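Give me structure tokens for this 446-residue protein.
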Amino acid sequence: MPPILALAIGVGFIAWLIRKDTAFRGRLSAAMWIPFLWLLIQGSRPVTAWLGIGGTSDVGGNPIEALIAFILFFAAFLILQRRRFPWGSLPYLNVAFFLLLAYLALSVLWSPYPFVAFKRWFKEFGNVLIALVILTEKDPAESLKSICVRCAYILFPLSVVLVKYYPNFGRGYSSGGFPMVTGVTPQKNSLGLICAVFALALVWDILDAHRHRTSQASWTRLLPQWLALAIGLWLLGASESKTSLLAFLVGLAIFLGPHLRVIRRAPVAFARGWVIIVPVLLILAAVNTVIFAPALEAVGRDTTFTERTDIWQAVLAEPVNPIVGTGFFSFWLEYGDAVRAAGIPQREGHNGYLEMYLDGGIIGCALLGIFLLTTCWRLAAAFSPKSAETRVIFAFAIMSLITNFAETYFFRPDVIWFATVLAALAPRSLLAPPAAPAQQLVREER
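Here you go.
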């Protein structure tokens, strides 16, 4: 089949999926276009990469991408202003998160590239603004679900077309020279990640439709979700991203767990068990990979986590200040050339916890640990068999813990970090009555 014909069929299929979803769910509100576009960009590639214009450097960035981000951030700010969001109460949504964010802002002062570090920190704060747009909707859970489903409707079919008919876009090679399937993303692990996140959102949507069974919740109503889910699972397997696959299976187990009677009797204990077990296993895996050798071999990994341990040793050999680190998002600007000269062709540490140490030192790691544990514990306290919202946002948080062991997603532009920030800022807002205003969102958290 000619590539242009395959693309036309793919676009037509996407249009059909969106039309069917719009007929049932309605159009996106004007405000929801902001997070929808943001997730589409974070879940694929920069706009300029699609258009083949402009250039990006580690220090200078890309002015066109910066302008696009600023427009979205400013639009989010105006929406929140119109909704009379109480800015003075913002830190109370999650004190641990904003304490960590403030420390990272302070770390700009000792960054070797303070202006670049500040721009990247500002982008992270913009990520918060866009998350708040969803959280201040009348029904934040439905809003989150709808944009995730529609992102899946666009990114999944388009990835198949690119993989099959546009290999220059849909396929690539790793830094080690191995072929990989990338789809709409720049590399295979990014493809696996969006499949894991949006596939879980599709499962959420399917089960919600069954739970609120109506004449419209027939198989024809759910056909678009099932088709998109099948495509997403195929892409997840094709990406060969073992970390994303593991995260999806864990997220699915968390989300579906309360369907078992024994878990339904003690849902909070079930959730808090994950908060305890997952960090312990991650620490054991980092300290002694030998005990996990059989499990790693079963999923196609080795005890080096596909040579990631070599990367970790190389970056730790650099003279980073162990207390305060290099400065927000600054390690690779300062020491990237030295790491690559040592034979490690990387631009990231492939471990979110390690990256926090490199950028923020022991203080940053301590604050990150406090933020993650307190947030997950609070989400676990709200975990309920009767609320799919509480289960899915908790699943996203645990998936973030897992994926950051082998990749860097903390404070990076990607969908799993966006989902983590959204869940951390206002878990109760996803449980609030549909008519709860923005002010109530803050009062509940205080």
